[in-house]
Design brief:
- With 196 residues, the protein is mainly alpha-helical.
- The chain has one domain.
- Helix content is 81%, strand content 0%.
- The protein has seven helices and no strands.
- α3 runs antiparallel to α6 and α4 packs antiparallel against α7.
- The longest helix has 34 residues.
- It is globular, with a radius of gyration of 19 Å.
- The two termini are 37 Å apart.
- The mean pLDDT is 89.
Length: 196
């Protein structure tokens, strides 16, 4: 992917679309875009295999909307990130395929996730430290995204679209799990620094 992004950036520079001073920035941006595209296509292929396209799209959209502002665990390498993403997608799609929950239980899970998100978001990483104002803004946006996706879940349920509703609930759960994992890793690193 890195080689492809470098070639695309070089091509953009040769055509006069970007300047030489922006090569590194565009290479990074194109690389991230390609990685996101590979993840999304892989998940949609898995969704076809499981027969859960609607649930997968609802899950993916909801998770991406909240994850941006909630923060949490990030893998160290692109390969690890891809493997974790695909493993999580397989588990989510399998759950979508075999589990059906009543709306009251789904609402309960989403409300508990919302309480956690409202209290703990954003979970920072060593690579992305936010100042106090950014934390306030990210928390507010995380709660707004949680509320919007929760309303969408209820709407899907009442329209009889139980799989997309379930996908949104699972995205809430995964978002909270990534936040907890991120908090755990951050504490572990801080403990190691104190001991050193």
């Amino acid at each position: 992917m890195k080689r492809i992004s470098e070639k695309l950036t070089w091509w953009l520079q040769q055509n006069g679309t970007i300047g030489e001073e922006d090569l590194e920035l565009y290479t990074y941006g194109i690389y991230q875009l390609l990685m996101d595209l590979v993840d999304t296509i892989s998940i949609l292929i898995l969704a076809l295999v499981f027969g859960e396209i609607a649930g997968a799209i609802a899950f993916l959209s909801s998770f991406c909307a909240m994850r941006r502002y909630c923060g949490g665990f990030h893998a160290n390498t692109p390969c690890r990130c891809y493997l974790i993403t695909i493993g999580t997608a397989c588990l989510t799609l399998w759950l979508l395929h075999i589990v059906e929950l009543p709306i009251t239980m789904m609402l309960g899970v989403v409300v508990l996730c919302g309480l956690f998100i409202g209290k703990m978001a954003p979970v920072q990483t060593p690579n992305k430290v936010l100042d106090r104002n950014e934390c306030v803004v990210y928390r507010r946006r995380a709660v707004i995204m949680w509320a919007l996706t929760g309303c969408l879940m209820v709407m899907f349920w009442f329209l009889g679209l139980t799989k997309p509703a379930m996908g949104i609930m699972l995205s809430n759960v995964l978002c909270v799990m990534t936040m907890i994992a991120g908090m755990f890793i951050l504490r572990k690193r801080q403990t190691v620094k104190k001991e050193a």
